[in-house]
User: What shape does this take?
Amino acid sequence: MDITAVTRSYARWAPIYDRTFGAITMMGRRKAVDHINRRGGHVLEVGVGTGLALPLYGDDVTVTGIDFSTDMLAKAEKRVADDGLHNITALRQMDARSLDFPDDHFDSIAAMHVLSVVPEPARVMAEIARVCKPGGEVVITNHFRRDAGLLSRVERLAAPLENMLGWDSDFSIDVILQDPRLTLSRQSALPPAGLMTFLILRKTGGDAPLPDASLPPI
Assistant: This one.
């Protein structure tokens, strides 16, 4: 995925994103933010886009959002202003491959439907692991390729069009599970038709308990 192509693609998507792909992925955003709200604290949302998830955060959760697309960020800023979202402390233009935050800084990190649209997703995950506090969580919703069936063939056929679509349809889950600092603690399929996946990764170290024992299944 080329960063220039991503910029052009999301400039095209920004005016219609909320009514198209944003609408399809809203259930995953709700699941992710519901989980984060149970933990509270300071949250980084990587790929905040037009800010669709921002009104869902609890008042006791402080949120910093970043995105590479200034077109998307402009819509997020308007949403924050229009809705009076005082717990959104910053919206910044930033390349997720080089996060301008110190190590071990955030209690939770949300990456919702962004990892298959960024260049070098493994490098992005390394940066996410770096800025997450030990014992903190990385909450991910994303589409990952299937290994069998009709949809898997469609995904592979669409893969050469990724720069035009702004989305890697043939994206493997293994890419984001390779950082040794992050341990997978939860994985489940999301509607529609299990097309999206919900993941919780926990950064090693710290005293925060794993959430799975007390939280209802998703």
Observations:
- Residues 148-168, 208-218 have pLDDT under 50 and may be disordered.
- Residues 26-39 form the longest helix (14 residues).
- Helices lie at 3-13, 21-24, 26-39, 70-83, 121-131, 150-158, 162-165.
